[in-house]
Amino acid sequence: MRRRHLIAALALITLLALPAIAAEQIKPTPTAKELLATSAPDEWRTPDPQNLLVMQLATGRVVIELAPDFTPLHAANIRTLARQHYFDGLAIVRVQDNFVTQWGDPASDDNGDKTKLRPLGKASSTLPPEYTRPIDPKLAWTPLPDGDVYAPEVGFSNGFPVARDPASGQEWLAHCYGMVGVGRDNGPETGNGSELYAVIGQAPRRLDRNLAIAGRVLEGMPLLSGLPRGDGPMGFYTRPAQRTLIKSVRLAAELPAAQQHPLQVLRTDSPTFAALLDAKRHRHDAFYAVSAGKVGLCDIDVPVRETSSAP
Amino acid sequence: MRRRHLIAALALITLLALPAIAAEQIKPTPTAKELLATSAPDEWRTPDPQNLLVMQLATGRVVIELAPDFTPLHAANIRTLARQHYFDGLAIVRVQDNFVTQWGDPASDDNGDKTKLRPLGKASSTLPPEYTRPIDPKLAWTPLPDGDVYAPEVGFSNGFPVARDPASGQEWLAHCYGMVGVGRDNGPETGNGSELYAVIGQAPRRLDRNLAIAGRVLEGMPLLSGLPRGDGPMGFYTRPAQRTLIKSVRLAAELPAAQQHPLQVLRTDSPTFAALLDAKRHRHDAFYAVSAGKVGLCDIDVPVRETSSAP
């Protein structure tokens, strides 16, 4: 919404024009870029390459981190599918506005030819739901202080947005922007990871605890969100030419080192992440006159960088 | 995430297979389509054509309802701009992933030629902020029961998502998906409606009370959200060819009747809207095993229909 980048200049003018105490009061909140620039190397986590899916679309690269702490059976099945090159030549088949982008086997669509379904090979065709799991006290847990409409407690574990219910002792991954879920039919055990979706709009938290979440997009969200919306029911494309081709999906561990472009994720139990949360909650600068004083779980995008960009 | 549309069939089978009392307990929540099909004509509101902006893009039509109950000076200025055909030939200049799509005069961009700025004519170049307003007891108010991370109270007034703070006596429009805000520079009185943005991702509620909201997109969101993301800082396009042309922006009141395609918005103080809220909070059917029991302000898309589709 900003037309010109006047923040730094205006903030400086303001600081110069006021006495020291006033300047202190209106000291602008540091930006995310400024906070990340002072982060320590050990505040960044390098995801296990066995948990990184590298999807090459016709339009570019999408990298997804699997979440075996929450959905281990789904992670294992998706790894099996990737190792078999199951996804190669499949496509993005559905883009529903303010909801999800979904990819998989076009033959599984309503109008698809079921005799042409690609076999799953050594992967399982059904899996236990893994929609929630018992709260694991060994997992790092960074609670958020401002509440949540949908769950008693929310926070982050190892870079993933998590909701918790102490009464039931359960926790689950939350359907925030960029989270990757497992498509299924009506039965709870009909998902297997061969059809995946990414959230591209307002977090559909009503899906929480009703679907397994496999992971999170670390890189390439615009390639999934910036697509023409599907013209069929639920955003399915009605013509094959509208689909985006998946050239390949590989585990990063299987790629030659030169193709891995290793990514790092800011640790959500790090001081810099805490400072980012604080800055987001209390942002006050030349543009923001009113600080929200709060932040919601799905309003936080956990920072990712390429290892090569680390100082 | 659903691969096939089995809900109706499965629900029927389940109802037939179980005794009456069990069938009653698992009666599927009505869908929005089913609830709207039984709505009464007077539950729909026809927006004043003086409040409808019809934006013809090279790719199709976007219709925006202005919100003069909340931002009357901005509505008046935008009407003045539209009557002057100010927007004709301007463009969508910025698409920032999970944030906003913004349109206006390309010459106002960082790298634009300021000598080529289009004059605002009879429109004001600055306006009072109108970020909040005193709570108006005469406005219809449909409160939501499940709380909000950012504001003490949230609900709907005349189809718009609203946040309230009884302590300060103020209310304001919330930055939900599809809401249209007024771009500005750092100063609070630098917005005038010549540059507008629509929210295309997770609701950036931190912007609430920091920017004026002019209205809401009633039709055509996919034309704003499904665009390639900008490659420059903050999602600005760096090359003119990436922009989407605005062929024209007109007030519906100025269009010939045949071009108006009048829209109706479900009244947010109607029984059918209340039923929709209830269904959303307690959704339970063949697909949803766990009902959220809650709903957030920005998770509700107020229904819109073309008058011609009214029964």
Explain this structure:
Two copies of one chain form a homodimer. The first copy, chain A, is an alpha+beta fold and 311 residues long. Chain A has a domain at 45-113 and 120-266: Cyclophilin. In chain A, 18% of the residues lie in helices and 24% in strands. Chain A contains seven helices and 16 strands. The first copy, chain A, has helices spanning 7-17, 20-25, 32-37, 72-83, 221-225, 257-260, 271-281; strands spanning 44-45, 52-57, 60-66, 91-95, 100-104, 133-134, 142-143, 153-157, 160-165, 170-173, 179-182, 196-199, 213-219, 244-251, 263-266, 304-306. In chain A, the strands form three sheets. Chain A has an eight-stranded antiparallel β-barrel. In chain A, strand 8 (153-157) and strand 9 (160-165) form a beta hairpin. The longest helix of chain A has 12 residues, at 72-83. Chain A is globular and about 65 Å long. Residues 4-24 of chain A have low confidence and may be disordered. At the A-B interface, helix 5 of A face helix 5 of B.
Helix content of chain A: 10-25%
Sheet with the most strands, sense and barrel status of chain A = 8 strands, antiparallel, barrel
Shape of chain A: globular
Strand content of chain A: 15-25%
Give the arrangement of secondary structure elements:
2 copies of one chain form a homodimer.
Chain A: H1 7-17, H2 20-25, H3 32-37, E1 44-45, E2 52-57, E3 60-66, H4 72-83, E4 91-95, E5 100-104, E6 133-134, E7 142-143, E8 153-157, E9 160-165, E10 170-173, E11 179-182, E12 196-199, E13 213-219, H5 221-225, E14 244-251, H6 257-260, E15 263-266, H7 271-281, E16 304-306
Antiparallel strand pairs in A: 1-15, 2-3, 2-14, 3-13, 4-5, 4-14, 5-12, 6-10, 7-8, 8-9, 9-10, 11-12, 11-13, 15-16
